[in-house]
Amino acid sequence: MQRRKFSQLPYSGLRIAKSAVTLFLVGGLLFSGDLTGQDTGGFKPGGKPEVRIFTSFGTTVSGGESHTSFYLGRAYLGYSYNFTDKLSGRIVYDVADQTLAKYKFTGLLKFAYLKYQTDRWTISGGMIPMPEYGYAEKKWGYRYIYKPSLDIYGFVDPSDLGISVACNIASWISADVSLVNGEGFKLTEADSTFKESAGITLTPAKNLSLRAYFDNMGKDGVSQQTLEFIASYETGSAGISASFHLRRNDGLTDGHDYHVFSINGRLAMNEKISFIGRYDCNTSVKLENEDDPWNLSDDGQLFLAGVEFSLAPGVRLAPNFMGWKPSDRTMPFISNFMVSLDLKI
Predict the structure, then answer these.
(1) DSSP letter string, 25-81
(2) CB 180 within 8 A of CB 195
(3) Sign of torsion, CA 117 90 345 57?
(4) Which of 80, 230, 246, 292 could cross-link 90 (Cys pair, CB 3.0–4.6 Å)?
(5) Per-domain residue ranges for the chain?
(6) 152 falls in which pLDDT band (50, 70, 90)?
(7) Alpha-carbon gap, residue 79 to 89, rounded angstroms
(8) Is the pLDDT of residue 313 over 90?
(9) Domain 11-344 is classified in which CATH homologous superfamily?
(10) Measuring CA to CA, which residue among 116, 115, 138, 142 is closest to residue 126?
């Protein structure tokens, strides 16, 4: 269910991109030296390491065949540091089973950024977390079981090289804009093509939130555009979230349009046990003079259900079932019976 593969970036491009991140971080350290000399009301600079591991055990059944294995999805290793009460930095290394080359695991720099934050403004620069991804991941809430819909179907990357600015306009409305390379954290292409994005979040009533998002990236006369809407209603013991994602000219290829509808919910029985469920429907359009949708091999429906147990602070365990029904009738139904673990240190 992976959406696309990218070719390797030339070494020179990677060197330029990494140099840009390094200069940004070094500049922030120098800038923080001036800020720490100011009166911060007794604030003391400090940092802390962060470790998070996603792992699972389960069986996949498809076409009458089954495969059982342990699976280490990924491990996040990082460190965050508060230079002042408003200026902070964070770096995270992502070790994951990318099934690339001859190595089982591949390590990538996922986050490396400086953030300036006040009650109203948040400004981030470097290899930054994308605001849209962070919002959608929070509304799903079970990344260790399966990626949020906008990630698994290729709409928004978790992080990218660039800058973002967010503003809390009022208690019920906030907005954010970003300018990034548009290649995500797996590739940091150094060219003149950028992705511009903007999002707005509304909280019109208690427990209800609405968000709209748009991004655009153009090259050689073709523009790739993404439009998303997310609506959610959450209480202490239950929540439901629905989202619609639309991509026009995917991969900067004219006519390669597709859309995804996703809905998920949770119901807590008590502080330790919750029931979760999710449904996705991924559909691509038919091109002129074609009988099948252009991306039929990736089109289909996802069904997910599970029970989460909170074993201790930072430890979650979830037996779950996930099924994938391809739109291509020549492909078999895929069933996954898993026990997923989220360990946060």
Answers:
(1) HHHHHHHHHHHHTS--SS---EEEEEEEEEEEEEEEEETTEEEEEEEEEEEEEEEEE
(2) yes
(3) positive
(4) 80
(5) 11-344
(6) very high
(7) 8
(8) yes
(9) Porin (2.40.160.10)
(10) 115
